Amino acid sequence: MNVFVLAIVAVIYVTAIGYLGYLGYRRTHTSADYLVAGRQTHPFVMALSYGAAFISTSAIVGFGGAAAMYGMGILWLVFLNILMGIFVAFVVLGARTRRMGRRLQAQTFPELLGRRFQSRFLQGASALIIVVFMPLYAAAVLIGAARYLEATLMPGYFEVAVILFSLVIAVYVVVGGLKGVMYTDALQGSIMFIGMVIMLFYAYGHCGGVLEAHRQLEALPDEVRAEAALLLPRIRDAVPAEVDDAEAVDWFIAAMGRLESAPEGGDDPDELAPVAAKLAAQPELADAPALINRAVTMQFERDGWRGWARMPAPGSNQFYVLVTSIILGVGIGVIGQPQLAVRFMTVRSTRELNRAVLVGGVFILVMTAVAYIVGNLSNLWFVDETRGGLLSLAKADRNIDSIIPLFVKDALPSWFGVLFMLALLSAAVSTLSSQFHTIGAAIGRDFFEHGLGAGDGRRHTVLVTRVGIIVAILATVVLAFQLPAGIVATATAMFFGLCAAAFIPAYIGGLYWRRMNRAGALASVLTGFGASFLWIMFVQMPKGRLPALMANGLLGRPTVLPDPVLGIQWCWTESIVVALPVSAFAAVVVSLLTRPDPKDHIAHCFDGAAPRKGR
């Protein structure tokens, strides 16, 4: 990649977003300007901002990498992205969110819930969930961007990439507020769209065209299986006799990983010495990464993988991960995302919101479909270098977050690397800026101004919000350094599922059901969040293999439900499948069993009637 050209493009890009951030600053005069862009946003800008905030590096890098493993079945997520993220979000929820937000003068998502149900506690609890857990999602997005910078420009300097990227975002988000965020989102969304369209054409062109590419992708698994199967007898011969056949591959993968990471010339652990000796006696098995890759392929097949052109075997572990975590967790969880819901409160009228549907739909369709298709096609490109296993995964050293960056670097023209860098950085910047702004608004508006009763509605609230944004950025950077490799798609699905369980029943019920009351909303948010949190901490094993955090730390067990219950592998199942029904049940039952909210307040929320004095 030409460093001079790259430097020029980077300067132009940073200057453009700096100017737009400054423009947002100049046009920000009130807290409403800073928090909801003055409710006067153009529908085209709103649609691109919504799409750019929705589609981040977690979608392009994380889920593109997941597509390289799980195959074309991930395209079902594109369907849900359009159905839930655009049609339901804009047509079913958007107009009512805009109207009710204006009637209640709500400027944040927690404030909308708090004012609808007349509960400061609900507003504070919702804000707390955002402040504590949104950095997890933000860290996933930040990792995706940093991995690309590391792969293309800064090999071995992941930490430096994280810090530099965070500083760029901090400047214009802190200064420009939501106006600055949305202006830059519109520019970044346009760059993302152009970059992804070009990448799709190049990817298919390199693979011989659409029909030929899919024919090769359909045939490739049989070749991979045949070569991987040749390794099985040698694996059985290498592992200790006391390890049974069912665990042989897992034991071998762990052993090879330890051997590969052992210091050169150092002594192998005693239990691994026989493995090392047997492998040394077989020169054709001397390539440790290739060995691990082939073994991982067998492991995936055992867990239900059936190739890149097919869904995993129904009921298999891989099926649970793809369907419950990737497809349902993200596809449904999107309508509970606070940073997206607040976009509906930024437009002038329902008519303008409807005008944004087409732009948003086309944008989401192209961004998601291209990322997932190219992730699959990357296996055809890397086939010659990594024959005998999950091809893209091997090339990326078993880190799915590196697959798309490596494909762009190795397979596409160098000039496109510059364009894709802008597209990918735009995706990360647009999403991170929205996340940081949402966290800062929760701290400044929901905690400081309403929770503590401080602030004057403008200067103090905006100042505290800016401080909150800085705190959010620091927390995200720390998390980015701590999260394990290949975690982008997993962390995104976890956060989406948690937001779905905590917010969706109260959000939809508050917009559509007059009988939904304060008690029902509180019960829904608390039980939904509690069920999701406990599931993630004690049951769900991230990526299907990492132990559940608290189950491992407190109980010394990878999960509290290790065996199938009623024929279902619960540890592979995303929290949304359990926690969202629990949250919805609590919302309905508690609302029906408790006293309705005041009629004049309900009339004000739904019909715009003026509330009685003293209320």
Structural class: mainly alpha
Whole-number average pLDDT? Answer: 76
- By DSSP, the count of extended strands is 0
Number of helices: 25
Cα radius of gyration in angstroms: 25 Å
Structural shape: globular
Q: Write the CATH homologous superfamily of the largest domain.
A: Sodium/glucose cotransporter
**What fraction of residues sit in β-strands?**
under 5%
The tally of domains stands at 2
The residue fraction in helices comes out at over 70%
Please provide a brief summary of the model.
The protein has 25 helices and no strands.
Descriptive notes:
The chain is mainly α. The protein has two domains: 3-214 and 305-451 and 461-607, Sodium/glucose cotransporter (Up-down Bundle), CATH 1.20.1730; 215-302, no CATH class. 73% of the residues lie in helices and 0% in strands. It has 25 helices and no strands. The protein has helices at residues 3-26, 31-36, 43-54, 57-70, 75-103, 109-116, 120-152, 158-206, 210-229, 232-238, 245-261, 273-280, 288-302, 317-333, 338-341, 350-381, 391-395, 403-411, 414-451, 459-482, 488-512, 518-538, 549-555, 576-593, 599-607. Helix 5 packs parallel to helix 14, helix 6 (109-116) packs antiparallel against helix 7 (120-152) and helix 21 (488-512) packs antiparallel against helix 22 (518-538). The longest helix has 49 residues, at 158-206. The radius of gyration is 25 Å and the shape is globular. The N and C termini lie far apart (64 Å). Mean pLDDT is 76; it is low at 33-38.
